[in-house]
Specification:
132 residues; 5-stranded antiparallel β-sheet; alpha+beta; 2 helices
């Protein structure tokens, strides 16, 4: 009795487009062409960068919402523990400057001072054009 052996061909597919890879060169190729290889790596690099940027912008927006809420409650200062409980992350701001001994930060158009125990002097920056 003779059994016909099934020939299982190891078919590899391109990681970018899914086409079958022609093994005319290296046996461990992962892409069908240089174009697919470049598209694959560019997409991964830019996607990683985009995710990091979205994360930072998301944290800045969260800080802005919290500061805006504090202003609308009529408060000018709050302790850092309460702000942290609300979700405020002092590591994220849009600008920073040191005026004398004061550490002044901004989050878009809201200015605040940061001390070891408080977030104080929270106020909206008035634009010069608004005053006219």
């Amino acid at each position: 009795m003779h059994y016909k052996a099934k020939v299982i061909e190891n078919v590899s597919r391109c990681l970018q487009c899914g086409d079958v890879i022609d093994y005319s060169g290296r046996p461990d190729r992962r892409f069908c062409s240089n174009g697919c290889k470049n598209r694959y790596h560019n997409y991964r690099r830019f996607r990683r960068k985009d995710l990091a940027q979205r994360s930072v912008v998301g944290r800045l927006e969260k800080n802005y919402e919290i500061l805006d809420k504090v202003i609308h409650l009529g408060l000018e200062s709050l302790d850092r523990i309460t702000m942290a409980y609300m979700g405020f992350d002092p590591a994220y701001s849009t600008s920073y400057c040191k005026l004398g001994r004061k550490h002044v930060y901004t989050c878009f158009d809201i200015r605040y001072e940061l001390t070891q125990s408080k977030v104080k002097a929270i106020s909206i920056i008035k634009d010069a054009d608004q005053d006219r």
